[in-house]
Specification:
This protein is mainly α and 73 residues long. The chain is elongated and about 60 Å long. The chain has one domain. The protein has three helices and no strands.
Length: 73
């Protein structure tokens, strides 16, 4: 897969901290940016419930709503 160049604006303190981390770890800045992108993507994927889990939840609520309300009392 071919990498794509992009440009953005970053808080100076944050980029200084990330550059220091890269230097301390002996890594390139782009490796940390790639790691951050990967972490963000994974975090977002996990934050969204899977469609089959949501379907089961909705079916359960539809079927047992009255029971859930009684249990909550």
């Amino acid at each position: 897969m071919k990498n794509v160049k992009f440009a953005t604006v970053v808080d100076p303190d944050k980029i200084a901290t990330v550059r220091a981390i890269a230097k301390d770890e002996g890594r390139q800045l782009r490796a940390l940016v790639d790691e951050a992108f990967t972490d963000l993507i994974e975090k977002r994927k996990q934050a969204k419930p899977r469609s089959h889990a949501m379907a089961a939840y909705k079916a359960s609520v539809k079927q047992f709503d009255h029971l859930y309300k009684k249990l909550a009392e």
